[in-house]
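Q: Got a minute? One more chain.
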Amino acid sequence: MSASSRYIPWLLIGGILTVEIFPWLILTGIILFALTTLFSFVTLPVEIDASNRALAWLDNARVTASREHEQAKDALWWAAMTYVVAALSSLATLLYYVMIFMGVRD
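A: Always. Here it is, folded:
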């Protein structure tokens, strides 16, 4: 994924600038971007589970006190939510590029 991620912005920019002449360029960028969006949604449960496993480890290891445990729980929940926001942001951006490709303005 990381190799294609380097080229996606260039394909999209070039495709947007030349959408009337080379529509396949933006379409290629959209397809690659869709793959990265799909990857972010597929890995979402893994990322959320990582926060849950970290909290369980804190419980079992008794690393945190009662007050610290609640703060750690809150921090881990918000850490997991950053992945949710990133996935939704990627989806919104993908839809934006699709609309550009389809000629939707405004």
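A: The chain is about 85% helix and 0% strand.
Q: Perfect, thanks.
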